[in-house]
Amino acid sequence: MAAPFTRVYRPLWRIITTTTSNGRVRNVSYTRQQWSAQNVKTAGAAASPWALHGAVCVQRLPVVSQDRSPIEEKFMELMQQMELERSLLADHELKLLDDAARMSRKQEEDYDSDEEEDYKDKEIVTAQDLEDVWEQKLKEFQPAPRTQGVNQKDVSSSERCLADSLILLVKKDIGSQKLWLLPQIQWQMGETLRQTAERALASLPGADLKATFLGNAPCGFYKYKYPKDIQKEGTVGAKVFFFKAVLSSHKHLPLEKNSFAWVKKDELQDFLKPEYLKQVRRFIMAL
Amino acid sequence: MAGIVCRTVSRIISSQASCSSSVVAVRHSHWFTSMLSLKTSVPLRAEPKKKKKVDPRREMMMKERLKKKLKRLEKVPPELIPIEDFITSAKSFDETRIREAPKLSFEESERRAHLLKEWSRYKRTQHQTEMDVIQEALEAQRQALDELKLESEELYKAAVSPDTDVFPFQHEGPCYTPPITNYEAPEGKFNDITRVYTQ
Questions:
Q1: Which ranges form a coiled coil (chain B) (predicted)?
Q2: pTM for the complete prediction?
């Protein structure tokens, strides 16, 4: 009888220890009945004093690889050299050596072409000829230049700085000021915050951006209090929850210069307010 | 065609060896002119007729023995498919391919040693910064989720629920040069020489 009893006992014990270890959780609940009761309480209680906003952090990921730093260049050369030294001769290199030997034999005075074993009357295509042919073929292909002709300082173009990941910023009126922010919009009842973020992206005027959202969970948040004269009854301030998205369609739509900006991580400080920047920098990874 | 069918039919009904079957078998032979003189047919005259009971038994025994032999042969485990990556080709052991090892000067070997050590330091700091950045992002997410939980349980549950659309996630990574707009790749053909093994 002891075995079934311990089986029932153990899960409850585990729940108690895990919930007590999470110091931050405000509503600590032990059994299912208490938890559902708690839910009813929060639904019926006074609405929280924070207005909810959903914001989206759209990243245009790098299109082109980054340039190598000096130590990386030196190391790459060293690795190539070492690999070459430790390798065996390839078929092509053997052919080159054979051709060179044959050429040197031809130069000698007592050269007899009948002594050649393999090639008597056939046309010889030397390995060097093959190499030249391959070089010619390579030159026929023109790749696109690494820095597309766009001015690197023109912040409104999404084609700038192809080697870095860029983030979209929008200029918005908040209260009396015009601020640069990540696109955000107020949360409405009946939708999840991720849907709010998607709406924020879709409602940008003039921009037809398609992005893949990475998961349902927000990646960061920022809360600020309204100035005293604007504080309505019950709302102390706003909480903005950021969601990460990756730009999927790469259309070169020219966006308005003064309201949109594609910005690298180290340029963010020129655009965002210090407190806002501090929170946003945490989840933007530009390695 | 009809004759073949008749002969097969006669073999099938051989257990019930009766005059009728022998008649059918014998009918088409040239030894006979009339149907009446059955019992004096050559094959019937040459051998004494075998007993009917032992025949089917013997055939059954033969069949069983053959089946057992087949099973023993089939029990051999199938040959393992060789992994071509693990087999060093004979070309690697060819002595004509050995490259002469260059003699490095003292300065060169020193330079190499220093560069390798610098590289390991550089890589370590790079890895450390990457780990720190990831930890920072995770911490920011955790705090955001805690704040959301303080706001409303519903939204928190929706945020924590798994997203089924995000995987499989596909993205074309960075190349050395950006893609050319409206590029038509030339059509080429290739001969597939991969070896396919069947067990």
A1: 131-158
A2: 0.69
